[in-house]
Design goal:
Largest sheet: 4 strands, mixed
Order of helices and strands: HHEEHEEHHH
Protein name: Signal peptide prediction
Strand order of the largest sheet: 1-2-4-3
Distance between the termini: 28 Å
Helix content: 55-70%
Number of domains: 1
Radius of gyration: 15 Å
Number of helices: 6
Organism: Fuerstiella marisgermanici
Oligomer: single chain
Keywords: Membrane, Transmembrane, Transmembrane helix
Length: 127
Amino acid sequence: MLIIRPIAIIWALPYTILGLLIGLFGLCTRGRVLRRWPLEFYGGGVEWFLSRLPSDLVMAMTLGHVILGRTKAALDISREHELVHVRQYERWGPFLGPAYWACSLFLWLRGKDGYHDNPFEKEAWGE
């Protein structure tokens, strides 16, 4: 199992890099980081970024091994959910984004909710 962890980290790396860039933007704009694994950034530019996403309900999101939250409280509330997404990135790697959005589009075209009916979200919500 010792060799699997580095492979999972590398497999998710493209999204982790994007998450780190957004997190660094947050730090440059009075945001904060929680030094744990995975890294968690909140406030500042991270909050600004999340507030620009299509849904006003986004408290936090995961990109690879980085969790982005509007506030520290938002991270505390959503941590378990977001950690499931971290494991999904470790399994799906660079294919998670396209697979997630393809599922959402397919569901939406069938008249369903692209978020709540999405199997990736259902797994993260423990359904």
